[in-house]
Each structure stands twice: as C-alpha cells, then as structure tokens.
Amino acid sequence: MSTDRVITGFDKTSTGDDVIAGIDLTGRRIVVTGGSSGLGAETARVLAGAGAEITLAVRNLDAGRRAAADVSAKNGNVRVAHLDLNDRASIDAFVSGWEGPLHVLINNAGIMALPGRQLSPEGWELQFATNHLAHFALTVGLHGALAAAGSARVVALTSATHHRSPVVFEDINFEHRPYDGWAAYAQSKTANALFAVEAAKQWADDGITVNAVHPGGIYDTGLLRHVDITPEFQAVVDATEWKTLEQGVATIVFAASSPLMEGVSGKYFADANEAAVDSGDFERGVAPHASDPAAARRLWELSQSWLDAR
User: Fold this and answer.
1) Which of 2, 107, 222, 235 is a Cys-bridge partner for 264, taking CB atoms 3.0 to 4.6 Å apart?
2) Residue in 179, 185, 219, 268 annotated catalytic
3) Over the range 102-138, which residues count as b (16 or more CB within 10 Å of their CB) and which as e?
4) Tell me: the pLDDT tens digits for 16-73?
5) Helix and strand tally (H, E) in the chain?
6) DSSP class per residue in 66-83
7) C-alpha distances in angstroms, 239 versus 64, 217, 234, 282?
8) pTM beyond 0.85, yes or no
9) What is the SS3 assignment for 148?
10) Residue 185 annotated in active site
C-alpha cells in the first residue's frame, strides 16, 4: 500500500482521454455497472478505446445494447450483461455467470436523493442498499475472478456529498429520524469510501487494490432523475461549476488504468489526485468519517452479515 499521496499533473479540467493517453489496456477485462448512459457509458468508451474488453452490467438490456453499439461502432470490444442491483438473485446470477479473470470492476451505478423513504426487498433504506450493499455483494462475489487476474482493481464511485453524513449505524434505515433523501445519499457515499478502506486490508494479499473516486459534479446524468428541482436546488445548480461527462470520468479512468495506481489501495481520489483527509476542501478532500478504519471494519461486518442472512 502506498504511504505517500498520489499527486499528478491532472486537475478538474482533465478528461478521460487526457488521463489514458499512452496507456494500452489490451487484454484487460473490465466490468462497469450502470454502463448504459452517463458516466458509465463514457467510461466504457474511453477504456474500450485503449483496448480493454468491456462488460456493461445494466438493468435495462435494451439501453445497454444501444450504449454498447455506440461504443463498439467507434472503438473497442463491448458486451452487455443483465444486472439489477435491487435483486439479490440478479447479482448472484451475474457472479455465477462470470467466467475467467476480471482485471477491473467499476462500481458506477447508483441512485440519488430519493424524494421519500423507500426500502429494498430486504428492508434496507434503498440508497444504502443500492449504492453500497448491492455493490458489496457483487464485489465480494467476484473476489475469485479479481484474485485470478493477478493485479486487479476495484473502483468505487463515491461523492463529495459524503461530507454531509457518516454512516449512522444506529439508524441506517431512518426508522427513528425524519427521512432526508440527501442525508441518505450522503450516508451511502460514505459507505462507498469506507468499503475501499476495509477492502484494501481484506484483500491486500490477493493482488486486489480498491479505491474510492469522486467524479465531480456532473449535471447531465440520469442520477438527478429523482431530484425535486426546487428554486433552492436550481440556485445551487446555477452557482455550481459543473464538469462535462468527459471531465467527470477522468478520475474513474485514472483509478482504473494509470500505472501510477499500481499498489495504491484504500484511498479516496478527486480530480485524478489522492485526497487529503480533513483538508476543508469539500470537492477535493475526504472527511475523517469516510476514512475511519474502525467505521470501515464495522461496515464490512454489517455488510457481510447482510450477505449471510439469505
């Protein structure tokens, strides 16, 4: 594991094409969840262009096939597989259907800011269940394939919104406090960052590195489909310096492909640079509660208990 921060010449204006320039991914097999549109589709385009074999793991197969056809028409080898993160049987089917090594898993799919409290079939708050627990199940299920690759990477998408809330272990499902869609989203994004912290320890001997990435604010994605566009929210939108999709995938692509990331694990990245803990920088820093090893261990044990409760 790296002890020094990874600092590069990239910044918030860098694109996926910028960070992958000169990198050859021929022979690398990569899974991107939620790859039918937005960040997932653009990530697939960039990585496929560098020679990787991409699998788009998607809930909507028709949308996934359209995205795959679009990427394949330009460059690369792209296939589509069904994955519904709200269905344990679908996750299990994807895992059992995977054959051979997996070099990179990009946990990109997610939901954000639900207007009201919703629960998964198992009774977990839906954002926590979709954004964290489902990806935990998928990644643990694919552990063997990742280990077989010899030097695999897992990229967990988080968000600067994690600053708004730790994982509230005493009330993850909002049973004893008023439901707040943004707080629930923030909690799930903290969970994504904590997953990287503990997975790095769990799998250090397996040649698997795991890192969390904040892509930045990207307005033109399906992630905002549940957001109530109030005047207050619109004011935030108007005041925010948004990234393009091409800029938004830069940190994802960097974590998935850069030689600078060899052996780096359990870290949080933004603008293709490793974040400082408690820096006071909302967009480029990571909160102590999202990098706390004790919380990461507790979350891992909780998540494993969910997997075991079949």
Assistant:
1) 2
2) 185
3) bbbbbbbbbbbbbeebbebeeebbbbbbbbbbbbbbb
4) 999 999 999 999 999 999 999 999 999 999 999 999 999 999 999 999 999 999 888 7
5) 12, 10
6) HHHHHHHHHSSEEEEEE-
7) 33, 12, 9, 15
8) yes
9) helix
10) yes
Does residue 106 contact residue 155 with C-beta atoms inside 8 Å?
A: yes
- First-to-final CA distance of the chain: 34
* Residue 142 tokens, joined: 């694919």
Report CA dihedral (162, 155, 246, 6) to the nearest 10 degrees.
Answer: 80
Give the integer Cα–Cα distance in Å for 15 and 244. 9
The set of residues, in sequence order, having a beta carbon less than 8 Å from that of 89 and lying 6+ positions away, is none
- In DSSP terms, which residues pair with 75 in a beta bridge? none
- Can you tell me which residue has the tokens 């706390």? 292
d(CA 41, CA 57): 11
DSSP notation for 115-138 = SS--B-TTSSBHHHIIIIIHHHHH
